[in-house]
Amino acid sequence: MVASEFSVGTKTGIEGRFGKRCALCQVLTSKVHFCHILDKATDDLYRTGTIHNLISPTFSRASPRNGLLLCPTCHLSCFTASSSASAPLSFIPCPEILQYLMTRLRAKDFRDVDAILDELAQNLPATAEAIVARPFLDMYTIYPSTGFRRNSISHDQPMSYLPPLLFHDAASHSLVEVQGVVPPGTVVYRVFDAASIPLTAPPQEMSINLLGTHHDGSRLYWKLPGCSAGAFLTTVYSEILSNASGFSPEWINAEIVSFIFTAQVTSLRHRQSSYSPLAILRSISEGSNAHYEAPEHVAPTPEAEDTAPVYTDEEIVEWTYGPDWSASDIIKLRANVHNPKPWMQLVPHDDQPIPLTL
């Protein structure tokens, strides 16, 4: 994250959202940094974010949603990338919100992440999934980068405030402070909300483990009102795709990995379905994508070639293709053509647009 100039009005709004405290450690300081989640040096991230419906194509770097308040220590030690490595930490939406976003993706909701969550904040839609997710709006967990997990001597983060224990009350659909003994099996949370801490509250000296839960088993969440969830997801997108096999459940929740892969596949299918599938196949001369494998049930057999069935466009766009999958096979299946030209199917890598020449 880069600390640079926002407008005076934007700075005032960001400061008000966090009560003049650091979003991570909650310390009250006059030397705060107004940080960009996505900065001007990350044009490639903007492209990735927009293609995969994480942020809107009109997302502005100068927007208040792209701003975060951090103390100098947290900013420089935790959220600043080097020339050779990503920032040690990032915020990502909490598992409950990621689960909700995945239900929207699977329902073919192709809006950007922030648009979906803005609707959720307006008490829409009135679905069971939305009701469960709504109390967790603006709540985030910590994503530790690969370098941070491997290289840090200590994963403890000094904090100036420890919030109370909360649990999700199914009757009121809200997070409620725990009173008395917590029933066995109850999931409890501690939500670090800088804006809720009185300016006169004395600081507490304590630390938390950034790679797990608190010692009492509570889940640690940070409330970051008004921030772009899509921008945060954009910052971790590429690293999660390239390192998913090396994740440990004690380091990162499975929901973020599932969401990133779901977003990748869904956005790809959405882009494919914007055109006639047959036209896309004919527009591509050669190429492959090792990330995708053809379903075995799609591949034609010698016996089936003479009586190849005709598939619908919807069925075709649901298929993904690997480096050995010939587009001519699809054309045979789609149009019962016996001697098509040997075009090869290309599914673009991550953020490459689909070429189309008709």
Word description of this protein:
The chain is α+β, with helices and mostly antiparallel strands and 358 residues long. It has helices spanning 8-18, 43-51, 72-78, 95-106, 113-121, 128-133, 146-151, 229-243, 254-272, 277-283, 313-317, 327-335; strands spanning 2-3, 33-36, 67-70, 89-93, 139-144, 156-159, 165-169, 174-177, 188-192, 206-209, 219-223. The strands form three sheets. Strands 4-5-11-9-7-8 form a six-stranded mixed beta sheet. Strands 1-2-3 form a three-stranded antiparallel beta sheet. It has a two-stranded antiparallel sheet with strand order 6-10. A hairpin with a 4-residue loop joins strand 7 (165-169) and strand 8. The chain starts with a strand and ends in a 23-residue tail after the last helix. Mean pLDDT is 75; it is low at 275-358.
Helix content: 25-40%
* SSE string, helices as H and strands as E: EHEHEHEHHHEHEEEEEEHHHHH
Q: Give the oligomeric state of the chains in this entry, treating copies of one chain as homo and distinct chains as hetero.
A: single chain
* Overall geometry: globular
What's the rounded overall pLDDT mean?
A: 75
Strand order of the largest sheet: 4-5-11-9-7-8
Kindly estimate the percentage of residues that lie in beta strands according to DSSP. Answer: 5-15%
Number of helices: 12
Number of strands: 11
Calculate Rg over CA atoms.
24 Å
Decide which structural class fits the backbone.
Answer: alpha+beta
